[in-house]
Amino acid sequence: MSGRRVLQKTGLYITDIPPQLLARVPAEQRGPGLGRDAVRLLVSRGGEPVSLRPFRELPELMRPGDVLVVNTSTTLAAAVDARLGGEDLVVHFSTRGEGGRWAVELRTPAGGGTTRPRAGGPAGAVVELPDGGRLLLEEPLAAGADRLWWARPVPAPYEVPALLRAYGRPIRYAYTERDQPLSAHQTVFAVPAADGSGSAEMPSAGRPFTAELVARLVSRGVQFAPLVLHAGVASQESHEPPYPERYEVSPTTAGLVNAARATGGRVIAVGTTAVRALESAADEAGRVRPAVGWTDLVVTPERGVRVVDGLLTGLHEPGASHLQMLEAVAGRDAVRLGYAEALARLCLWHEFGDVHLLLKDEIRNQPHC
Predict the structure, then answer these.
(1) What is the CA radius of gyration of the chain?
(2) 220 Cβ partners below 8 Å, 6+ apart?
(3) 70-103 burial, b for 16+ CB within 10 Å, e for fewer?
């Protein structure tokens, strides 16, 4: 789906992000005494006026009995220098597949630690890795697409997680100022997976949370429900819909969410990945069941949401397919007004930027008697 089509569908009419609104470094590096939670929080609900407040005030917006659903996937050092023939490459390891394969994105070094797009393939090509291992490119991840390819590490058995620990670094985009340590890309919720799986890109909506803020939320009667969705490499250039991703919703989390819904608590997803996993595990009546597997769900306004009452997320580019999910949760008016306010108040975009809480219009969603 092209950025133009998404823009026309959402009606947001945001065509560009001023360069000064790109978050180039983490919040804690912008001045002395600042922490991860030194970002701002936009709050949007239906056609109501948008508020802007410090993120530290999030507990004041929550109610006892609310549940915050968080993604515990750890961020991988997913970018590795490599070579294909005489060509220098950067390999982004996106998703761990079945049978030892990995979905990978091949990029061309652009200088200064950044990269530019490169078509994947060809099939049968062998990518040389820095530890002497190789990647055999097999086929595109999706028919008709050439960005992500399935690749088989050789010789077998070959442990990609060990390669990433030794030679990898976090994926970096051109709008950032410099490389950051892997710790800057981990959230307070991250739990390493036993098999070395993780997210190619940080589940960044959880980044502003600190242990102190979590404690304040718990003391207010807010519960945390963990799940896992290992996010692959996003398409920064063409804004493709997300590819299938691995997820897990535990029996405990399913029970917490169902109990909250039954007793009037709100279910607030921290990040688009949490929405995707939770909605994938829900039936048509909105009851969440334990689930493990792959999801290809794309949440749109037409499909709607069955479980989620709100979404805490970063600010997305105009053509991003995630904008449809935001509309599905809160409605077009809330998204349109929120983004207009974000531009007017000089909010910061991307993973180190400000965050946006979108809530369902409770009056609009009340049943009619």
Answers:
(1) 20
(2) 59, 62, 64
(3) bbbbbbbbbbbebebeeeebbbbbbbbbeeebbb
To the nearest 10 degrees (0 to 180), the angle between helices 322-330 and 272-280 is 70
Q: What is the pLDDT of residues 141-178, one digit of tens each?
A: 887 778 899 999 998 778 899 999 999 999 998 889 89
Position 240 scores a pLDDT of 67
Yes or no: say if 47 and 332 are a contact pair by the CB < 8 Å rule.
Answer: no
Quote the pTM value: 0.91
DSSP 15-79: ----GGGB--S-GGGSSTT--TT-SEEEEEETTSPPEEEEGGGHHHH--TT-EEEEE-PPBP--E
User: Would you tell me how many other CB atoms lie within 10 Å of the CB of residue 11?
Assistant: 12
Span 316-339, average pLDDT = 89
Rounded distance between C-alpha atoms, residue 58 and residue 10, angstroms: 27
